[in-house]
Design brief:
This is Acyl-CoA dehydrogenase family protein. The protein is α+β, with helices and mostly antiparallel strands. It has 3 domains: 5-114, Butyryl-Coa Dehydrogenase, subunit A, domain 1 (Orthogonal Bundle), CATH 1.10.540; 118-226, Butyryl-CoA Dehydrogenase, subunit A, domain 2 (Beta Barrel); 233-367, Butyryl-CoA Dehydrogenase, subunit A, domain 3 (Up-down Bundle), CATH 1.20.140. It has 12 helices and 8 strands. The longest helix has 36 residues, at 300-335.
Length: 376
């Protein structure tokens, strides 16, 4: 069985033709600004991957989605990272629809039918800013809600159909978090250049600016999260999917380097086996957690262990990068930009929230039994 054969077969089954098209496109083209990957993903029906089958989607569970993201990451890290942001938002909507009598199910059906892409406007990317702290400000006028501010970086900025954003809303227990969905073509929404690095440039991570943009009432989802950072079930599910899929995406990028090592017979067999073992062990750990989520649902304990999987995967990736680059040698590094690119792209997992340093105390306190898990 060839390396990544199972993962790529799943992509072919659920998103026919996508893997072949990505494989036929040079990595440098897939990772450049204006890359074709997001368009190919959309044409293959990717936006509906997590939408339940009864709403017209593919109905993928977390185990399947992890394998898809790993396969995509092995072809285009930018595409895997960008689509994780979409899936994170869709998973949250699926959870909301399961426990709500609102209009979420109609939106899910539209995502699958019309291949709508959702960008995430949470507070990711702001130094010293907690992910639950809204990146935008809201004002109310009667029953109407208006948003202003900007999100940078915001993946899928140029291809999105909807922006999901967190905002503070008054509640019975003080200020609570709500999730708004803003049409990309709404008056007051604009996109500005922001991403200056060539690494992951294909993810369209630009600045999205909102200038007093009205949020339709049917596109506002209230949560039970208060300003102390405690997580309700909706947010817990969203975080579990985000961490698991983002980790899988970067394991896919690392797998691309491992694949190059495997096909180079000049590399010592022990080195090739070591790199495969390391990445597969991390992937199997992640899949085991995903299987538990699929059968039992997500909880605070699931999220805590998902974060441990992610941080352990970061360490695994660092080891694999070092071994692969050294084993492939200087001539391979000089002869193609792909090796240096993948080496840099894989490092970006550490930049996604919540960082290991920010979560050190909350995780230590949680496993010591002192406090509920908090996301600072």
């Amino acid at each position: 069985m060839r390396y990544l054969q199972r993962e790529r077969a799943i992509v072919e089954e659920l998103l026919p033709g996508l893997d072949q098209l990505l494989a036929a496109t040079p990595l440098s083209e897939l990772e450049a600004p204006g890359a074709p990957g997001i368009g190919l993903f959309t044409q293959a029906g990717g936006p509906g991957l997590l939408v339940p089958a009864e709403h017209g989607g593919r109905g993928a569970d977390l185990v399947t989605a992890i394998r898809v993201q790993r396969a995509l990451g092995s072809r285009s890290p930018s595409l895997a990272v960008a689509t994780t942001m979409h899936h994170f938002s869709v998973a949250s909507l699926v959870e909301a629809a399961a426990t709500s009598s609102g209009m979420e199910w109609m939106l899910l059906a539209a995502i699958a039918k019309d291949n709508l892409l959702l960008a995430s406007g949470f507070a990711e990317g702001r130094t010293g800013q907690g992910i639950l702290n809204p990146a935008l400000t809201a004002r109310t006028e009667g029953d109407k809600v208006f948003l202003s501010g900007s999100k940078k970086p915001c993946s899928l900025a140029r291809s999105m159909n909807l922006l999901t954003a967190s905002l503070p809303m008054p509640g019975l227990d003080g200020e609570q978090l709500a999730i708004a969905l803003v049409p990309a073509d709404a008056p007051g929404v604009s996109v500005k250049p922001f991403w200056g690095s060539p690494i992951l440039a294909g993810a369209e991570s630009e600045e999205v600016v909102l200038n007093d943009v009205e949020v339709p009432a049917e596109l506002l989802v209230r949560t039970d999260v208060t300003d102390d950072g405690r997580l309700d079930q909706l947010q817990t599910v969203g975080f579990v999917w985000f961490e698991a899929l983002m980790t899988a995406s970067y394991l896919g990028a690392a797998s691309a380097l491992v694949e190059r090592t495997l096909t180079n017979t000049r590399v010592d067999a022990a080195v090739r086996a070591d790199t495969v073992t390391a990445v597969e062990a991390a992937a199997l750990t992640l899949e085991g957690l995903a299987a538990e989520v699929t059968s039992e649902g997500a909880s605070q304990h699931t999220l805590a262990r998902c974060l441990m999987c992610r941080y352990a995967a970061q360490d695994t990736i660092s080891h694999v990068l070092s071994v692969c680059v050294e084993a492939l040698g200087g001539m391979a590094f000089i002869g193609s930009p792909d090796i240096a690119y993948l080496h840099s792209a894989c490092r970006a997992l550490a930049f996604h929230p919540p960082s290991r340093a920010r979560m050190a105390a909350p995780l230590a306190d949680y496993f010591a039994g002192h406090t509920p898990l908090r996301i600072p």
